């Protein structure tokens, strides 16, 4: 199961932690994990394309931690879109 934890301060996203595996299929064949990974990486790349100083990313084997260093309307909208 993929677990998502969101830390907010005053309704503003400050940290997102994604961990685990969807278990839809074997690793490397799991289309659910591929979809989640693609959505997350696309969102991170979009935000980094605006300014690489908005996020701090920690990627490990079954974990991605996104720490939001600066918030603005565009970053917050992209993060909410990713979570939806």
Instruction: Outline the biggest β-sheet.
Output: 4 strands, antiparallel
User: Percent helix among the residues?
Assistant: 25-40%
Distance between the amino and carboxyl termini: 17 Å
Helical region count? 2
- Low-pLDDT residue spans: none
Average of pLDDT:
91
Q: Which class best fits the helix and strand makeup?
A: alpha+beta
H and E string: EEHEEH
Q: How is the largest sheet built, in terms of strand order?
A: 1-2-4-3
Rounded to an integer, what's the Rg over CA atoms? 13 Å
* Shape, principal axes of CA atoms: globular
The total strand number stands at 4
Strand content: 25-35%
Description:
With 84 residues, the protein is an alpha+beta fold. Helices cover 37% and strands 35% of the residues. It contains two helices and four strands, in the order E-E-H-E-E-H. A four-stranded antiparallel β-sheet has the order 1-2-4-3, with helices on one face. Strand 3 (55-60) and strand 4 form a beta hairpin. Helix 1 runs antiparallel to helix 2 (73-83). The protein is globular. The chain starts with a strand and ends with a helix. The mean pLDDT is 91.
Key features of this structure:
35% strand; 4 strands; alpha+beta; 84 residues; four-stranded antiparallel β-sheet; 37% helix
Write the layout of secondary structure elements.
Elements: E1 2-9, E2 12-20, H1 31-50, E3 55-60, E4 63-68, H2 73-83
Antiparallel strand pairs: 1-2, 2-4, 3-4
Helix pairs in contact: 1-2
How would you summarize what this structure contains?
The protein is of the alpha+beta class and 84 residues long.
